[in-house]
Amino acid sequence: MTTRSHARAVAAALVAASLALPGASDAAPKKSYINTFTLVLDFTDRAMTWVEKHRDDPRLAEAAAAMARTNVLTVETLSPPPEFVDMHPYFVSIVENSVNAFQAIADDDSQAFYKIKGKMKKDRQSLNKVLADQNFVFPAII
Fold first, then answer.
1. Does 18 have pLDDT greater than 70?
2. Comparing C-alpha atoms, which of 63, 73, 113 is closest to residue 96?
3. pLDDT at 142
4. Phi/psi of residue 27, nearest 5 degrees
5. What is the mean pLDDT of residues 62-89?
6. What is the pLDDT of residue 8?
7. Residue pair 20/74 in contact by the 8 Å Cβ criterion
8. What is the sign, positive or negative, of the torsion defined by CA atoms of 21, 25, 31, 35?
């Protein structure tokens, strides 16, 4: 990873961390929750795809794990509006497990990676079921 790319990754992590403001224990406004959920989940999906395609680059996996740790801090302090309470634990689990998945790739542990990825897939299916039951579709990021 070049110094410039590393700087961008650090900047992105700092921006994500700023969303997790101390004392923000009240439920987030619906718009803010949806936007944060969409951004974090999109990052998790895209980073997982990219890092898995580049399993031979442990520094990339370590950078993705660092960014995912920041996302964990963000989602753990984000209180969902009432209509998203049922799906929030799956969301948190997916983001938390992404850290371990990226670290497994960095450690060249394919067996652990695929086990974690399987858990993430089950959580994603559960999350999608809750959303479908509520007839809610989160916006797609272009």
1. no
2. 73
3. 72
4. -60, 135
5. 95
6. 52
7. yes
8. positive
* Phi, psi values for residue 127, rounded to 5°: -60, -45
CB atoms inside a 10 Å sphere around CB 19: 20
Give CA–CA dist 125/103, Å, rounded. 23
Token duo for residue 14: 């700092």
Over residues 15-25, the mean pLDDT reads 44
Q: Which run of H or E residues covers position 99? A: helix 88-106
Distance CA(46)–CA(35), nearest Å, equals 16
Structure tokens at 87: 């799906």
The answer, as to whether pTM is greater than 0.70, is yes
Instruction: Assess contact for 84 and 33: CB atoms under 8 A.
Output: yes
Q: How long is the chain?
A: 142
CA angle 101, 3, 96 (to 5 degrees): 20
Q: Residue 135, by phi and psi: left (phi above 0), alpha (psi -120 to 50) or beta?
A: left
Mean pLDDT of 16-27: 46
87: DSSP letter? T
Distance between CA atoms of residues 82 and 85, nearest Å: 5
